[in-house]
Amino acid sequence: MTKKHGKAERAAWNNMIRRCYNPKASSWQYYGEIGIQVCEKWRDRETGFQAFYSHVGPRPSPLHSLDRINTYGHYEEGNVKWSTKAEQVHNRRPFKDRLNITIHGVTRTASEWSKVSGVSRNLIKARLRRGINQTWLLHPGSLHGIGPHLTH
What we know:
Blueprint: H1 7-21, H2 40-43, H3 48-56, E1 64-68, E2 80-84, H4 85-89, E3 100-103, E4 106-109, H5 110-117, H6 121-129, H7 134-137
Antiparallel strand pairs: 1-2, 3-4
């Protein structure tokens, strides 16, 4: 790896450490403040970058940035990869208005369930608010008049 080829990767490594350990970092509240850490091997001033780079490899393109596979986990081997923004959108910790829904052991966001089922995201969310169970959540038609068993 030449200095030129490692510039983006070094910036990603520095930013990863900054957001986890510098309370003045703009994204500190989403990382360091909630306890997200960088593994000791990657934090080492002498060998950390090389260890990090050996694991994640070169950034595939300028459209890729560092991503944690398990968003509740730390920056460590096995939990970090390069992803595009489009991929990262589906790999966020849930927010108040962003739901992760598990149906028959498969977890997806409302938007993802909408794409695979054809039922609109807004209808899925409305059904959740009404307490509709997972069996009927992705039903393509109207549920009006089907019966009280829908919420059990």
